[in-house]
Amino acid sequence: ELKVEQNPLFLSMQEGKNYTIYCNYSTTSDRLYWYRQDPGKSLESLFVLLSNGAVKQEGRLMASLDTKARLSTLHITAAVHDLSATYFCAVSLNTNAGKSTFGDGTTLTVKP
Amino acid sequence: NAGVTQTPKFQVLKTGQSMTLQCAQDMNHNSMYWYRQDPGMGLRLIYYSASEGTTDKGEVPNGYNVSRLNKREFSLRLESAAPSQTSVYFCASSEAPQNTEAFFGQGTRLTVV
């Protein structure tokens, strides 16, 4: 059974600081997704990582995938308040991106 | 630019009542999914449909049934609602096997009293 663990589950940051969210998973896979969810809203896709060593960046967020370590990271650079949200990683064992196992999410609060 | 549309957005049911959650996507995706999200947790897959005419159980299928009505529509039915089914339900679609991400609807907040 595939298990996906994120840490930390809660993260409070000061604006301007850097931090990394970790996503570990239990079964070999090279398909990992990061989503963002604002309170009371739906999920929005951030990154799709499909190979070992994949790195993608969008603004202040950068995601990477190490399939050998079964680890993905989401790095936040110089955090701003607008990044406050819950971030989920999800791992798929086949080509159906929606047939994924999700982590419990990391709730990020960026304080001024 | 609708994407994935779910109805209703909110629903309150009494224990034992039945209801159907509707989902439609306009992206011509082959695959569709139903998830539930409980407070403080990630999403758990209830059922999915890899293509029109097929459905399969996910992680938490008990108490639910689904119908893939056509390529656009995928409904979720609760035959006899229970308080444990109080949750937020999300429908999603994706274009397998292109490995693109899943696209989610706005969610249905269901309360069973």
Question: Keywords for this structure?
Answer:
heterodimer, A: 112 residues, mainly beta, five-stranded antiparallel beta sheet, B: 113 residues, seven-stranded mixed beta sheet, 11 strands
Q: What's the arrangement of secondary structure elements?
A:
The complex is a heterodimer of chains A (112) and B (113).
Chain A: E1 4-7, E2 10-14, E3 19-25, E4 32-37, E5 43-49, E6 55-58, E7 61-66, E8 71-76, E9 85-92, E10 100-102, E11 106-111
Parallel strand pairs in A: 2-11
Antiparallel strand pairs in A: 1-3, 3-8, 4-5, 4-9, 6-7, 7-8, 9-10, 9-11
Chain B: E1 4-7, E2 10-13, E3 19-25, E4 31-37, E5 43-49, E6 56-57, E7 64-68, E8 74-78, E9 87-94, E10 103-104, E11 108-112
Parallel strand pairs in B: 2-11
Antiparallel strand pairs in B: 1-3, 3-8, 4-5, 4-9, 5-6, 7-8, 9-10, 9-11
Question: Would you give an account of this structure?
Answer:
The complex is a heterodimer of chains A (112) and B (113). Chain A has 112 residues and is an all-beta fold. Chain A is built from no helices and 11 strands. Chain A has strands at residues 4-7, 10-14, 19-25, 32-37, 43-49, 55-58, 61-66, 71-76, 85-92, 100-102, 106-111. In chain A, the strands form 2 sheets. In chain A, strands 2, 4, 5, 9, 10 and 11 form a 6-stranded mixed beta sheet that branches. In chain A, β7 and β8 form a beta hairpin. Chain A is globular and about 40 Å long. The model of chain A has no long low-confidence stretch (mean pLDDT 93). By secondary structure, chain B is mainly β. Helix content of chain B is 0%, strand content 50%. In chain B, β5 and β6 (56-57) form a beta hairpin. The radius of gyration of chain B is 13 Å and the shape is globular. The mean pLDDT of chain B is 93. The chains are: A mainly beta (112), B mainly beta (113). Chains A and B meet through β5 and β10 of A and β4, β5, β9 and β10 of B.
Oligomer: heterodimer
Tally of individual helices of chain A: 0
Mean pLDDT of chain B, rounded to whole units?
93
Tell me the major beta sheet of chain B.
7 strands, mixed
The helix content of chain A is under 10%
Alpha carbon gyration radius of chain A: 13 Å
Number of strands of chain A: 11
Query: What is the averaged pLDDT score of chain A?
Result: 93
Please write the string of helix (H) and strand (E) elements of chain A: EEEEEEEEEEE
Q: Over the alpha carbons, how many angstroms does the gyration radius of chain B reach?
A: 13 Å
Largest interface: A-B, 25 and 29 residues
| Apparent shape of chain B | globular
Shape of chain A: globular
Helix content of chain B: under 10%
Distance between the amino and carboxyl termini of chain A: 41 Å
Distance between the termini of chain B: 35 Å
Outline the low-pLDDT stretches of chain A.
Answer: none
Provide the low-confidence segments of chain B as ranges. Answer: none
